[in-house]
Amino acid sequence: MEEFYMSNKKLRQLEAYKVDDNNKPLSTNQGLLVSEDEHSLKIGSRGPTIMEDFHFREKMTHFDHERIPERVVHARGTAAHGVFECYEDASDITKANFLSAKGKQTPVFVRFSTVAGSRGSADTVRDVRGFATKFYTEEGNYDLVGNNIPVFFVQDAIKFPDFVHAVKPEPHNEIPQAQSAHDTFWDFIANNQESAHMVMWHLSDRAIPRSYRMMEGFGVNTYRFVNAAGKSHFVKFHWKPKLGVHSLVWDEAQKIAGKDPDFHRRDLYENIEQGNFPEYELGVQLIAEEDEFKFDFDILDPTKIWPEEEVPVRILGKMILNKNVDNFFAETEQVAFHVGHVVPGIDFSNDPLLQGRLFSYTDTQLIRLGGPNFHELPINRPVCPFHNNQRDGYGRQTINVGPVSYHKNSIQQNTPSPVSPNDGGYEHYQEKVEGVKIRARSKSFEDHFSQARMFWLSMTDIEKEHILKAFSFEVGKVTRVDIRQQVVDMFANVDVDLATQLAMNVGVQPPKIKQHVQINKTSPAVSMYANPIFSTETKKVAMIINETTEDLAQIMNALKAQKITVELVSDKQQTILGFTVDHTMDTTSPVLYDGVIIAGKFNNPKTKNKLNHFIDETYNHYKPLALLVQPNSTQQVQPGDEGIVQTVESFIEALRIGRHWNRATAIG
């Protein structure tokens, strides 16, 4: 091997380019030593980031250009068209025209995605989910670019490249794909403790949603609404799914990733094709400008929520997704979102994560879509006309006529010309800003654990159990014992008992910290299970049948009357009692369904083993199981166990509830 290496000219050439960064001082790409890498250059500790910050621009530009051609983050996604309908005239809070009248409709395009994985990764990994909406308004495109979790890992955008580098596959071996259960991620968390709150959400069931149709969306950052009179409110955006917020369980999520890596995109596509159109309500939380400092958290801190119990959500309208894309690449892959795509009445705050996003998104689209004309791709074009003096560039589609491409001019009577704010021209909110240039963070951003503990205290017992299991799985995958110990010590600040149990599970010492932060505040709105929405609508069940099945047509009618999707499963593809079998027990899996009905007996030993598998998995994942016939098997699951029923009527009720957690031997 040594001789082969020395004779390989290319390998020796590559050797010359290797760099070991261990124990080296930090510098820019030009060799300039860097004195501070935690904070963007701002006007005052809570002021806006300024363009003079060459270090931030170099770091972010390099990061934005690191992947070709897929997105650096949110690479794996799926999307659909729809319409947004306004519930009321919201002109008291914003002059945005698409929110100006009851019943007013605006076309939208929504892209859902995972964050960490590549385009080829699986849908059901533990991860944040992107929830990006493009409103094609009469005043131009407005992009509401958010996630299914309302907070983020870092407070300042200059640290975003560091976070993504840490969560991505490790650079020396490109492992693991689409996972946060590895050393570099948890090393980052333990050494950047502002991430504590986000980690609690990430390890909750929010990070393994049942479907894109059943997860909330959040704008994450703090924006502004401005009305026609110039009155400003700080605002956070919320999407509330009609079907409620539901999740998978971890064992189930891992198995689905193998059985159907396209589980979420298939679910969205098939439901839209079937007419089960996903529906979400758009809500906003509002804080008047004069109330900015009235809370025990900084409203500009992206690692903090505004508890809904303190700042209620006002519902403004609903969105229905009613059409699948015609071409995945042309639409889903080429759509370009940007938090800076706003309309009059929507503006920005000095949230330092948002300020950095305003730079990063355009930069990302330039490298990903090849140049400055990505707005001319069909999926990105606004529905209103657009005119300016920009010309040429990669991918130019507009054929501009006439000699003028500059402002001011006399040849075209100084057109295209600016429009006054009174006539619809965009005007930035006139916020007074003063202060010295400084790389620093406001002292009000320094509390990293109070809301993390509030989240923990707001969880039900089941949610707490799942978070501990998720911690134990993730940290248990970390190979470096010292990192495991750092994580345990860090999260003792959130809850000592949680950290102590984690220490036992991952083989490190109990936490050094013996007292977590002293708060007792809760926010029931952050719990998925405290106030669940129960429904059978659009849930999918497998009914296992054969020639022994009785009353098949009657059962099918009863289920479909409750808007339940039924797939028939048997030992082979065939027609039974006039119904075509959809799958065999080999071509589908119990993890792909919300419940299972056993309606046929099988005598073949191999088939009985397959049937046992369906029963076991359904039981272990807390799903409803109907034993309309007692299977000829060694299966120990018995009617009377929670969610184990013997009639179609009781199965429908069990399915409406969803998960049945009181199963002591279930392993999900």
What does this entry look like structurally?
The chain is 26% helix and 16% strand. By secondary structure, it is of the alpha+beta class. The strands form 4 sheets. Strands 2, 3, 4, 5, 6, 7, 8, 9, 10 and 11 form a 10-stranded antiparallel β-sheet that branches. The longest helix is centred in the middle third of the chain and has 17 residues, at 352-368.
Main features:
668 residues, Catalase HpII,  Chain A, domain 1, Hemocyanin, N-terminal domain, Rossmann fold, ten-stranded antiparallel beta sheet, six-stranded parallel beta sheet, 17 helices, EC 1.11.1.6, hydrogen peroxide
Secondary-structure topology with pairs:
Elements: H1 2-7, H2 9-15, E1 41-43, H3 54-64, E2 77-86, E3 105-114, E4 129-137, E5 140-147, H4 160-167, H5 183-191, H6 196-202, E6 217-218, E7 223-226, E8 232-241, H7 250-259, H8 263-273, E9 279-288, E10 313-324, H9 328-333, E11 346-348, H10 352-368, E12 437-439, H11 450-458, H12 461-476, H13 481-491, H14 496-506, E13 540-544, H15 552-560, E14 565-570, E15 575-576, E16 579-580, E17 583-584, E18 595-598, H16 605-620, E19 625-627, E20 644-645, H17 648-657
Parallel strand pairs: 13-14, 13-18, 14-17, 18-19, 19-20
Antiparallel strand pairs: 1-12, 2-3, 2-10, 3-4, 4-5, 6-8, 7-8, 7-11, 8-9, 9-10, 15-16
Helix pairs in contact: 3-10, 4-5, 5-13, 6-11, 12-14, 13-14
Function: Decomposes hydrogen peroxide into water and oxygen; serves to protect cells from the toxic effects of hydrogen peroxide.
Domain Catalase core: 27-415
Protein name: Catalase
